[in-house]
Amino acid sequence: MFVTNIHSGRDNYAGIAAISAQSTAKRARNDVSYLENEVERLLMISEAMWCFIKENHDLKDEDLFAKVIEIDGKDGKVDGRVSPTVPKNCPECDRVLPKKKPFCFFCGVTVQKDCFER
User: Is the pTM of this model over 0.90?
Assistant: First the structure.
C-alpha cells in the first residue's frame, strides 16, 4: 500500500505539472496572437499615415525607403533593426544619464529626451 501511494503521488505531481505547462503554453499562444494583431494594426496605421504624407507633400515611396535606410543606419549598421542607443552623458556634469528619467541623478539638470528613444 505504501508503494502504491508513492507512485500515486508522483503521478499526481506529473499531472499537475502537465496542466501547468499546458496553461503556460496557452498563455504564450494568446500573447503571440495578440502581438501579431498589434503588428498588423500598426502596419495598417503606418501605411495610412504614409499615404497621407505622400499625397500632401508630393513624395514618392523612394523618399520613404531612403529615410528608413537613414534611420536604420543611425546605430552603425543597416540591418533592418534599430539597436538600443548607447548611454548618453549629461550635458552639465558629463555623467551617464538614467535611461527613463527626465533629469540627471547627479546634478539635477532637466534633460530633453528623444521622443523615439527606446
Answer: no
Question: How far is Cα 68 from Cα 116, in angstroms, rounded to an integer?
Answer: 14
Long-range contact set of residues 102-110: C-beta below 8 Å, sequence gap at least 24: none
CB count, 10 Å around CB of 61? 9
pLDDT band at 100 (very low <50, low <70, confident <90, very high): confident
94 within 8 A of 62, measured Cβ to Cβ: no
Contact between residue 100 and residue 113 where contact means Cβ atoms under 8 Å apart: no
Q: Structural domain boundaries of the chain? A: 2-75, 84-118
- Per DSSP, the residues of the chain read -HHHHHHHHHHHHHHHHHHHHHHHHHHHHHHHHHHHHHHHHHHHHHHHHHHHHHHHHT--HHHHHHHHHHHHGGGT--SS--PPPPPPBPTTT-PBPPTT-SB-TTT--B-PPPTT--
Nearest partner of 113 among 13, 49, 100, judged by Cα: 100
> Taking the CA atoms of the chain, what radius of gyration do you get in angstroms?
26
